[in-house]
């Protein structure tokens, strides 16, 4: 009736009304869908769209089912893992942890640990919070040995105030062998405190490599647990120097020698043997510093000497200020200004490079005066002769004057080299590892002054031969200029000079030359003395 009314009113076309009625009737009665072959074209299009929607809906449904299955499997797996963890008994954490395992250096003149030689072995462990320790067993590596004087010291460090821990001796029983140390404490160590074990005069294995100390401990429940691994100890095999020291220590004459206090402090044979190879490397470094710094100072000094003799007043003023300031202040002060002043400006060069530059600057000021005095000692006739040959000023200086100057100033330059080599010891004050710093380290280790005496011998190896060379060269220089060496002094207060002769000073020595009308101008001193403060 409703359909007829809608059709009569024109609100619903007859075809759509028929389809809607059939669809509603089929849905109500759940009748099977009409086959596509008997459907109208419009019905077949609608059914195609419904089929694609059904396929998409089916795919989404399968995806949702798969996700649900994965989620259920994950939940079951997590529950299974939790169940297994609950069934496994919980393991107890370490009640005693290893903090430090060290051995004292036993190399004479060094910081190495020699295997097979007596040393002091130290083991330190911390008792964790809520725990107590009643005993400990330390297992040593294979090859350890005891001496007649080996003994054990066990302490407890009470950490009530970590800044000032208290050391307390522990009452315990000890069983020490070359393989292990068993300590049984009368009273357990409280939580948070440190167990401090020291073994004196103990010999570690004689080998090159690293060894470790293992062991176990007993907690307050009487249960034994394995110690956590600690740091290893680096060893070196005994050296030939150490064997010689050990052999000398057993000699009767060495013991008698060292019984004299002065000889023991300054000339101890054991520390002489230990210091000679150790200071050799420091001696090489000091020699390297001066061999690099002095050649750098030569051209700088020669250039400053030319400025000192310049016709321009400003250049003479600048060079004079440089020379007077450098020569008028101690080298020690210059080193301090360079090493502590430059870092304040953000300049941080290598210590050795900075040391070479400071030595070169200091020496260049002295060399400048040496070169200036040498050039001015040349007779002016040499300039006139060169000018007559058509040479200009530069050619005269480099081909005529400087060769003669170098020949005259070589002895004085050698003296400056000796002074600069000795001044390298001042670099030890700023931590440069040269010979003096090596000796200072050995003295602090030994508590003996013998390494300083050995260092002095190393300095003499360079200075004495060079001093002898200077003396020989000056004598040859005097002989080549027509002078004779002074006669040996036989106890008279002053040497008698023959008539017709006069004395002249060449370098550091007086020579006697015959007085004649053709004699050149007297030679001036080319070795300005350095300040006594240096």
The chain-level mean pLDDT equals 80
What would CATH call the homologous superfamily of the largest domain? Answer: MetI-like
How many β-strand stretches? 14
Strand content: 15-25%
For the record, the CATH architecture of the largest domain stands as: Orthogonal Bundle
The CATH class designation of the largest domain is: Mainly Alpha
Major β-sheet strand ordering: 1-2-8-4-5
Domains (count): 3
| Beginning-to-end CA distance, first to last residue | 134 Å
Sequence of secondary-structure elements: HHHEEEEEEEEEEEEHHHHHHHHHHHEE
Radius of gyration: 48 Å
SS element count, helices: 14
Low-confidence region ranges = 11-39, 484-529
Question: What composes the largest sheet?
Answer: 5 strands, antiparallel
């Amino acid at each position: 009736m409703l359909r007829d009314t809608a059709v009569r009113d024109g609100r619903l076309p007859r075809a759509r009304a028929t389809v809607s009625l059939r669809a509603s009737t089929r849905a109500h009665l759940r009748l099977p869908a009409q086959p596509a072959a008997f459907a109208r074209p419009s019905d077949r299009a609608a059914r195609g769209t419904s089929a694609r929607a059904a396929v998409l809906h089916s795919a989404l449904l399968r995806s949702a089912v798969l996700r649900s299955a994965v989620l259920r499997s994950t939940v079951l797996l997590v529950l299974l893992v939790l169940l297994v963890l609950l069934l496994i008994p919980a393991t107890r954490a370490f009640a005693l942890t290893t903090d430090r395992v060290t051995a004292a250096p036993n190399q004479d003149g060094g910081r190495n640990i020699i295997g097979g030689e007596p040393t002091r072995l130290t083991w330190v462990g911390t008792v964790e919070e809520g725990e107590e320790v009643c005993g400990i067993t330390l297992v040593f590596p294979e090859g350890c040995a005891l001496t007649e004087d080996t003994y054990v010291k066990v302490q407890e460090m009470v950490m009530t105030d970590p800044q000032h821990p208290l050391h307390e001796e522990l009452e315990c029983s000890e069983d020490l062998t070359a393989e292990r140390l068993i300590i049984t404490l009368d009273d357990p160590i409280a939580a948070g405190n440190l167990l401090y074990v020291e073994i004196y005069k103990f010999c570690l294995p004689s080998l090159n490599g690293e060894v470790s100390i293992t062991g176990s401990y007993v907690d307050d429940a009487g249960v034994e647990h394995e110690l956590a691994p600690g740091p290893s100890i680096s060893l070196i095999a005994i050296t030939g120097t150490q064997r010689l020291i050990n052999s000398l220590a057993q000699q009767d004459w060495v013991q008698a020698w060292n019984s004299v206090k002065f000889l023991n402090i300054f000339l101890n044979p054991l520390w002489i043997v230990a210091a000679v190879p150790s200071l050799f490397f420091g001696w090489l470094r000091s020699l390297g510093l001066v061999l690099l710094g002095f050649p750098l100072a030569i051209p700088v000094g020669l250039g400053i000497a030319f400025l000192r003799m310049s016709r321009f007043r400003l250049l003479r003023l600048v060079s004079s200020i440089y020379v007077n300031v450098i020569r008028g202040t101690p080298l020690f002060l210059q080193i301090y200004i360079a090493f502590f002043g430059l870092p304040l400006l953000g300049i941080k060069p290598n210590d050795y490079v900075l040391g070479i530059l400071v030595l070169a600057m200091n020496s260049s000021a002295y060399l400048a005066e040496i070169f200036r005095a040498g050039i001015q000692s040349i007779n002016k006739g040499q300039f006139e002769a060169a000018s007559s040959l058509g040479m200009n000023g530069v050619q005269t200086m480099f081909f005529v004057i400087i060769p003669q100057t170098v020949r005259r100033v070589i002895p004085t330059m050698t003296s400056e080299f000796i002074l600069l080599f000795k001044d390298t010891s001042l670099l030890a004050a700023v931590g440069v590892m040269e010979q003096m710093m090596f000796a200072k380290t050995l003295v602090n280790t030994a508590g003996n002054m013998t390494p300083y005496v050995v260092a002095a011998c190393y300095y003499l190896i360079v200075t004495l031969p060079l001093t002898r060379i200077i003396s020989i060269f000056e004598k040859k220089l005097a002989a080549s200029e027509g002078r004779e060496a002074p006669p040996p002094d036989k106890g008279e207060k002053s040497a008698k000079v023959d008539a017709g002769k006069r004395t002249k000073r060449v370098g550091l020595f007086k020579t006697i030359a015959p007085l004649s009308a053709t004699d050149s101008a007297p030679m001036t001193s080319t070795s300005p003395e350095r300040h006594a403060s240096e």
